[in-house]
Amino acid sequence: MKQMGKKGLLLVFTGNGKGKTTAALGMAFRALGHGQRVAVIQFIKGSWKYGELESAKCFPGRLDFHVMGRGFTWNSDNMDKDIALARQAWTFARTTIAEGKHDLVILDELTYLISYAMIDEDEILAGLAARPESMHVVVTGRGAGKGLIAAADLVTEMREIKHPYHDGVKAQKGIEY
Ligand code: ATP
Ligand code: MG
User: N or C: which terminal CB in the chain sees fewer CB atoms within 10 Å?
Assistant: First the structure.
């Protein structure tokens, strides 16, 4: 097989099992260890006080962490407002990619913008494809569609075998948030 130099990959972590966001954050931790610059952009997050947001402060100037999702969901009673917020968040992500200041850009829970038809899939695919040649992009979220899977270099599906939620265990600090 022909050997290639550094190639910016599109990696997708999808599926219903737990571990998509934490796998992406693990990759960020790894890249930071090599002195690389990382951007994490989170779409559609809940109201937990996520530990990762605090940890991000340990890497000033190298880890840019943005939570764009607060305030919009896919079942709100003001869909127009939510679509506008989703569009704003996507525009920010697309600009971050195009600027090329990072070695790794993580778009956490981006799949929902496509699956809830908030942003056109083609537009997202075009933004991802326009990344600089050496930039890696990670997309996480359940239900990655055919277009995203076809565009990706690596796709991992997290499959649930067991989850403590089914035994009535609620979300815990350090595990879920
Ligand atoms: P994590 O952020 O822990 O890596 P994830 O990104 O794979 O998880 P999401 O699909 O983003 O998971 O879901 C967010 C939260 O929902 C996670 O905290 C996860 O533990 C929880 N979760 C995953 N599977 C289930 C399930 N079957 N029932 C209830 N909660 C679940
Ligand atoms: Mg997640």
Answer: N
Catalytic residues, by residue number, are: 16, 18, 20-22, 30, 72, 74, 109
Q: Which residues line ligand 1 (CB under 6 A)?
A: 18-22, 109, 140, 142, 158, 160, 163, 165, 171, 176
pLDDT tens profile 99-148: 999 999 999 999 999 998 999 999 999 999 999 999 999 999 999 999 99
Each residue's pLDDT tens digit, 38-83: 999 999 766 778 899 999 999 999 999 999 865 566 566 778 888 8
> Torsion over CA of 61, 88, 26 and 102, rounded to 10 degrees?
-40
**What Cα–Cα distance (Å) separates residue 69 from each residue in 62, 75, 99, 108?**
22, 14, 21, 10
Q: What is the CATH number of domain 10-159?
A: 3.40.50.300
- Which residue is closest in CA terms to ligand 1's atom 27? 163
